[in-house]
Amino acid sequence: MKVIKKISETVVKQDKNQRNYKTVGFSTLDKVSIPGIGDVFLKPRTSALNLYEKSYINDKEDFGYNLPMSSFVQGSIETRTVEAYQMPDTSKNALPGATRTVNTFTCVVLGDTDSPNWENQVIQEMTRKGHKIATTTPVLQEESYIP
Question: What average pLDDT score do residues 82-98 get?
């Protein structure tokens, strides 16, 4: 089971339909304890998602909407290969308005990472965000160890 930590939240905002939501940031844990080795420090990954006071799906509060800061929840920050899409190019030498093509997407997925249904939850979350999965194989992220 993996857990992530709530690290930030915005003030309440409203979408175009006047529904209240917050953008909530999560981080992977930056330290893990490995039996026989001890504590290992990792470079944490961060990502955020919008959580609604009243969900469009069931008109109930999204889990995590009122979660206290620094709380730990089951979930993970997942990256998958998706159909290619355009996004703004924010690199140092990019021209104003330039875009670049990417084929990976990363997002927060809340839930039990040990569940046999986990990959379906990942696909569902990425689909909700407008991305079609090209392959369900997780994209390996380079873990940076801090000595």
Answer: 91
Note whether residue 147 is domain-resident.
no
**Whole domain around residue 95: which residue ranges?**
3-138
What is the count of structural domains for the chain? 1
> Does any domain span residue 145?
no
pLDDT tens column, 10-23: 999 999 999 999 99
Confidence tier at 146 by pLDDT (50, 70, 90): very low
User: pTM score, two decimals?
Assistant: 0.80
Q: What is the DSSP pairing of strand 31-34 with strand 38-41?
A: antiparallel
